[in-house]
Amino acid sequence: MTGALWTAVDEYITHMLVPPDAALDGALEASSAAGLPAIQVTPTQGKLLHILARLQGARRILEIGTLGGYSTIWLARALPEDGRLITLEADARHADIARANISRAGLDAMVDLRVGRALETLPRIAAEGGGAFDLTFIDADKQSIPEYFRFARKLSRRGSLIVVDNIVRDGRVIDAAGRDPDIQGIRRFNEMLAAEPGICATAIQTVGAKGHDGFAIVLVTV
User: Fold this and answer.
1) Would you say the pTM of this structure is higher than 0.85?
2) Is residue 77 predicted with pLDDT exceeding 80?
3) DSSP assignment, residue 42?
4) Of 86, 177, 91, 174, which Cα lies nearest the Cα of 136?
5) What is d(CA 173, CA 108) in angstroms, rounded to the nearest whole number?
6) Which of 3, 10, 62, 125 is deepest in the core (most CB within 10 A)?
7) For strand 211-220 and strand 199-208, is the pairing parallel, antiparallel, or unpaired?
8) What single string gives the DSSP state of each residue in 172-199?
9) Residue 31 has pLDDT above 70, yes or no
10) What's the burial of 211, exposed, middle or buried (CB within 10 Å: 0-12/13-18/19+)?
11) In the CATH hierarchy, which fold is given to the domain comprising 2-220?
12) How many other C-beta atoms lie within 10 A of the C-beta of residue 164?
């Protein structure tokens, strides 16, 4: 019954605090109809990202892992009119669906969706020299999180925020002997956070419709 209770509470909070929204709801429906995996953030998590971006006064946002563009819409809506969000997606089909969802939300002008493996795209972004990102959201393959974080750190400034999703994975993160590359990637990332100078970081466990997971929040201090 625990999972059912978590889901019921998520639904209650969503009903109370995340009202229906044509663009966001449409993005979920289109992604589901296209057969995309239902691994996007929940509505309450999406709104949390939106609030964090607004608190940051973010003008430049980097997202690693677009999927169907649901979190992209939440983040882009926090930007000022001249703000910019770069989002990276490895799967071309996912990117096509995301583009349509982002377009229906009226956000084409401020969202730059780039297709390709993030570890190939990120060096090009770094070389462009467009300035630091105020907020980076990492929600892509877990075994590469340490490498994504290194780039996010390089592309940040003092005061930038980095949010990393899915760092608990049903509690499997504590299994040091496990051979799952995703879990090992998360563990290496957590070890990096513990040793990295110039940041202030914490991690929060979450339960809800997506089960038992969590996210890390990193403030760049130097």
Assistant:
1) yes
2) yes
3) P
4) 86
5) 37
6) 62
7) antiparallel
8) GGG-TT---HHHHHHHHHHHHHHH-TTE
9) yes
10) middle
11) Rossmann fold (3.40.50)
12) 27
In 57-176, where does DSSP find H-type helix? Answer: 70-76, 92-104, 118-128, 145-154
Burial pattern 30-51, b for ≥16 Cβ within 10 A else e, equals: bbeeeebeeebbbbbbbbbbbe
Question: Which of the four pLDDT bands, split at 50, 70 and 90, describes residue 2?
Answer: confident
Could you give the CA distance from residue 92 to residue 72 in angstroms, rounded to a whole number? 16
Determine the pLDDT at residue 173: 97
Element (H, E) at 162: strand 156-165
CB 202 within 8 A of CB 210: no
Domain extents for the chain? 2-220
Q: How many helices (H) and strands (E) does the chain have?
A: 8, 7
Asked if residues 139 and 65 have their Cβ atoms less than 8 Å apart, the reply is yes
d(CA 169, CA 215): 10
Half-sphere exposure at residue 192, Cβ-oriented, CA atoms within 13 angstroms? 17
pLDDT tens-place string over residues 194-212: 999 999 999 999 999 999 9
Average pLDDT, the chain: 97
